[in-house]
From TrEMBL:
Its EC number is 2.8.1.7. Belongs to the class-V pyridoxal-phosphate-dependent aminotransferase family. Csd subfamily. PANTHER family: CYSTEINE DESULFURASE, ISOPENICILLIN N EPIMERASE. It comes from candidate division GN15 bacterium. CDD domains: SufS_like. It comes from the Bacteria. Residues 5-372 form the Aminotransferase class V domain. It catalyses: (sulfur carrier)-H + L-cysteine = (sulfur carrier)-SH + L-alanine. The keyword Transferase applies. InterPro entries: Aminotrans_V_dom (IPR000192), Aminotrans_V_PyrdxlP_BS (IPR020578), Cys_dSase-rel_unknwn_funct (IPR010969), Cys_dSase_SufS (IPR010970), Cysteine_dSase (IPR016454), PyrdxlP-dep_Trfase (IPR015424), PyrdxlP-dep_Trfase_major (IPR015421), PyrdxlP-dep_Trfase_small (IPR015422). This is cysteine desulfurase. Its cofactor is pyridoxal 5'-phosphate. It is an enzyme of class 2 (transferase).
Length: 395
C-alpha cells in the first residue's frame, strides 16, 4: 500500500513530532506518580513538569498569571467550564454561526433549559463575522461573547481583536475557541482583549489527545460547576476558590501534559510563523489546483488572507462521504467528510441539504508532493463522477 497522505489535521495532528512520543514515554516511565500530592522526589518532579507546562502555555498566550492557566480534557471541556460558569437564568450571550458544537450545544442547553437568551451572528459570503454586528446585539444583561477564532470548516480567522475591544469597552467577558488556531497563528490575551482562551492540545499544538485548557485573564471569574480533589488543603469542605484549583479537579493527565510540553517546544523551536507560512503555501497550491477542476465547488476560498490551512469542497454529482471513501480506498488519502460538528456553517454555505462537504486540513508535516497527489486524485474522481442534480452553494 502506498504511504498514507494525511489531510485531516483539522480533526487532529498526525503524526506527532517524535519528541512528543519520546517525552510522554520517558517522563511517564521515570516520574509517573501523582503530581503535587506529596513531597518525595518523583512527586516533586512530576509537579514541576506540570507547572513548567502551565508557565509555557501562559507565556504562549501572553497571560500574566500562570496559575490562571488550567488544564482540562480538551477544548470542549474548557468551553463547558467557561460557558456554564459564566451564564445563568436571565443572562444574554452572543455567539456566531461559525461555531463548533462545543460552543453551540452548551449555549443551546442553557437557552432551552435555563432561560439564557442567545444571539447568533451570521458570517458574510467570504466567511467572516463583523464586529459592528456584535455591537448591535449587546445588551445590559449580556454576560458573555463566545467566538470561534478559526473555522474548522472553511478556515476563516475571525477579527477577534476588534470584537474583544468592543467587549472590553462594555465590560462583557470575551471567550474564544482557539482549537484550530493555537499553534498556527498568534492568540494574545492582552493585545486581542481576550478574557478566556479555550484550547486543545492535540491539534495545532501537536500534543496528545486528552489535553487542553482554559487561560483566564486576571479579574475574570468563573463560577464553580464541579467539585472534587485538588491534592491541597484537603480539610476544606468546599472546593477551593483560588486558581488553578478553582477549575482543576482530580488527578491531571500527567503523560498528556508532558506530551503537550514537548509539542509546544517543537513549535517554538521551528517558529509558529514559519509553520503557518508553510501551511499557507500548501493551501494556496491546493486551492488553485482544485478550483481549476470542472465540477468542483470550493467554499469561502476566494481570498486566503486571514485563513488557516483548512479547505472544504464538493464534487458535483457525488455525496461528500462517497468522495471521501474514494480518496481513502483508491488514493490512500485521509480526510474528513460530513458536517464537521459545525451545522450552522453548512446551513449558510448551502451544504446542509447534501450532507456536508469534504474537508482537507493541512499541517506542518504535509509536502508539496502530497498536495499535488491530492489535486490529481480529486481531478480523476471528478472526471468519473456520476451525473446528479447540481448542489447549490450560497457562499
Amino acid at each position: 500500500m502506498d504511504k498514507l497522505i494525511y489531510l485531516d489535521y483539522g480533526a487532529t495532528s498526525y503524526p506527532k513530532p517524535d519528541e512528543v512520543y519520546r517525552q510522554m514515554d520517558s517522563f511517564y516511565r521515570s516520574y509517573g506518580v501523582n503530581p503535587g500530592r506529596s513531597g518525595y522526589d518523583m512527586c516533586m518532579m512530576a509537579g514541576n513538569m506540570v507547572e513548567d507546562t502551565r508557565k509555557l502555555m501562559t507565556e504562549f498566550f501572553n497571560g500574566t498569571d500562570y496559575n490562571r492557566l488550567v488544564f482540562t480534557l480538551n477544548a470542549t471541556d474548557a468551553l463547558n467550564l467557561a460557558i456554564f460558569g459564566s451564564l445563568e437564568k436571565g443572562d444574554h450571550a452572543i455567539t456566531t454561526t461559525i461555531e463548533h458544537n462545543s460552543v453551540l450545544r452548551p449555549l443551546y442547553h442553557l437557552e432551552t433549559r435555563s432561560g439564557v437568551e442567545v444571539d447568533r451572528i451570521p458570517f458574510d459570503s467570504k466567511g467572516f463575522v463583523h464586529p459592528e454586528d456584535f455591537a448591535k446585539k449587546m445588551k445590559k444583561n449580556t454576560r458573555l461573547v463566545a467566538v470561534n477564532h478559526g473555522s474548522n470548516v472553511i478556515g476563516t480567522v475571525q477579527p477577534i481583536a476588534e470584537i474583544g475591544a468592543l467587549c472590553r469597552q462594555r465590560g462583557i467577558p470575551f471567550l474564544i475557541d482557539s482549537s484550530q488556531t493555537a499553534g498556527k497563528i498568534p492568540v494574545d490575551l492582552q493585545a486581542q482583549h481576550i478574557d478566556m482562551i479555550a484550547f486543545t492540545g492535540h491539534k495545532s499544538l501537536l500534543g496528545p489527545m486528552g489535553t487542553g485548557g482554559l487561560c483566564v485573564r486576571e479579574g475574570v471569574e468563573i463560577r464553580h460547576t464541579r467539585a472534587g480533589g485538588t491534592g491541597v488543603r484537603s480539610a476544606v469542605k468546599g472546593h477551593l476558590d483560588e486558581y488553578p484549583y478553582r477549575l482543576e479537579y482530580g488527578t491531571p493527565n500527567l503523560p498528556g501534559i508532558a506530551g503537550l510540553n514537548a509539542g509546544l517546544k517543537w513549535i517554538q523551536e521551528r517558529g509558529m510563523h514559519s509553520i503557518h507560512e508553510h501551511e499557507t503555501r500548501l493551501l494556496t497550491k491546493l486551492r488553485d489546483g482544485l478550483r481549476e477542476i470542472d465540477g468542483v465547488t470550493l467554499y469561502c476560498q476566494d481570498d486566503l488572507t486571514n485563513h488557516i490551512a483548512v479547505l472544504a469542497f464538493n464534487i458535483e454529482g457525488l455525496e461528500a462521504m462517497d468522495t471521501g471513501t474514494m480518496l481513502d480506498v483508491d488514493y490512500n488519502i485521509a480526510c474528513r467528510t460530513g458536517l464537521h460538528c459545525a451545522p450552522l456553517v453548512h446551513e449558510q454555505i448551502g451544504t446542509d441539504k447534501i450532507h456536508g462537504a469534504v474537508r482537507f486540513g493541512l499541517g506542518p508535516h504535509n509536502t508539496e508532493e502530497e498536495i499535488s497527489t491530492a489535486i490529481e486524485a480529486v481531478r480523476e474522481i471528478a472526471k468519473s463522477r456520476k451525473k446528479a442534480p447540481k448542489a447549490s452553494a450560497r457562499a
